[in-house]
Amino acid sequence: MVPYILSEDPDMPLDEAIEISKRMTDGQKGDIFVLDLSFLGWYILGLLFFGIGGIFVRPYHQATVAKLFEYYIGAKENEPVIES
Prior knowledge:
Structural class: mainly alpha
Mean pLDDT: 87
Helix content: over 70%
């Protein structure tokens, strides 16, 4: 989640963004891993068609991760995630 945190606050130090990402995903890393694994088949299928399928899978995967970030921000709304 570090790139998304840094996109909201580009002046934040990297180590602080990493720490915030760790707190956001605490207890959720297994679920995130399974989510990433669910795209593995799509990427393999894309390779079978000379990598052209990856052109379509990559944006879908990135959009899913971005929505996951939005979910974590909304779910932890009561907790300060990014302190300014």
